[in-house]
Amino acid sequence: MAPRWITKASGECEEFSAGKLRTSLKSAGAPRTLIDEIVVHVESELGDDVKTSDIYHHAFTLLRRHRPPAAARYSLRQAIMQLGPSGFPFERFVGEILKAQGYTVEVGGILPGFCVNHEVDILAEKGNKHIFVECKFHNNNGIKSDVKVALYVKARFDDITKAHEMRAEGEGRHPRIHEGWLVTNTKLTSQAIEYSKCAGLTLIGWNYPKKGNLQDLILSTGVHPLTCLSTLEGNTKNHLLGNGVVLCRDIENNKHILREHGMTEDEIKSVLEEAGELCVPIAL
Predict the structure, then answer these.
(1) Are strands 129-136 and 144-145 parallel, antiparallel or unpaired?
(2) Which CA distances in Å does 163 have to 9, 126, 156?
(3) Which of 5, 182, 207, 267 is close enough to 263 for a disulfide, judged by CB 3.0 to 4.6 Å?
(4) 117 vs 164: CA distance, rounded Å
């Protein structure tokens, strides 16, 4: 049988892989029987001009019909892109993931550098370790964070670290351990990865590194954005985000916002049930 080709969001073409589809469905928590059904359905629908978005919509529709929590996990990438164009909810979201890992977190702080002051997206602290996190949010699957972004983040990190080390030396104390991170909701170019490995900058993207990528961190901590909930309509999600509610786990304490938006008690109950299932961390 001749290979079937699909067009990715970036415009690149690749051969369709039923194995990749099965892996993504399994990661979302779909049972094997439903995975088999979805793969057969998708393969039967494949034509000569198929996009990855077509495959996603077919799979998501079946998951939503039979297993809503699995549909929510499967839609994680799209859900993060719905956090909004400002990027601030994404910074808060990444901060909450770090909190779930035991870090003390400050979002949007100003730190002095050796040359200039810097606004840092996230400052995370645990013990003697400080992490300076730059978040790069994109609302298009086809966009990648490239080496220019990595260079920019590393330069800022080095300026902050130099100032800290000089202060520590002047005060006669040991400087803390520092790390610079670049976290993005999309992919990274090969040059960005190559440079960061050499320069000592930690990269976390949607599919990088192989273990400990953004998807892994979400599933293992149970920190999900409310935008992934299949029981909420788009305008309701935007209403919650506008009121500062970003996470599924925060909805329980903000039911009044849903009532004010016109949702019934039965509808709210369905939302809370789905959110509760998503908040359970998954061992990877």
Answers:
(1) unpaired
(2) 41, 20, 11
(3) 267
(4) 12
In sign, the C-alpha dihedral spanning 120, 125, 130, 136 is negative
Mean pLDDT by runs of 10 across the 284 residues of the chain is: 71 85 88 92 78 87 87 88 79 95 94 94 92 92 91 95 87 80 95 97 94 93 92 90 90 92 93 90 79
The tokens describing 53, both together, are 């978005």
CB 226 within 8 A of CB 243: no
Amino acid at 4: R
Tokens, residue 46: 């494949």
Tokens of 190: 């090969």
**Spatial CA neighbour of 160 closest among 108, 106, 112:** 112
Strands 104-112 and 202-204: unpaired
Q: State the greatest distance between any 2 C-alpha atoms of the chain, in Å, as a whole number.
A: 71
CA dihedral 40, 59, 71, 87 (to 10 degrees): 150
Helix or strand (DSSP H, E) at 160: helix 147-170
The closest of 222, 221, 236, 239 to 270, measured between CA atoms, is: 236
120 Cα distance to chain centroid: 19
pTM for the full model? 0.85
Quote the DSSP letter at residue 275.
H
Query: Which residue, 166, 194, 196, is CA-closest to 179?
Result: 196
**Token representation of residue 106:** 């400050």
- Encoded amino acid at 205, one letter: G
Tell the residue number behind the tokens 């003390």, with chain if given: 104
Tokens of 78: 């799209």
The pair of three-digit structure tokens given for residue 73, joined into one six-digit string: 């996990």
Contact 213, 207 (CB under 8 A): yes
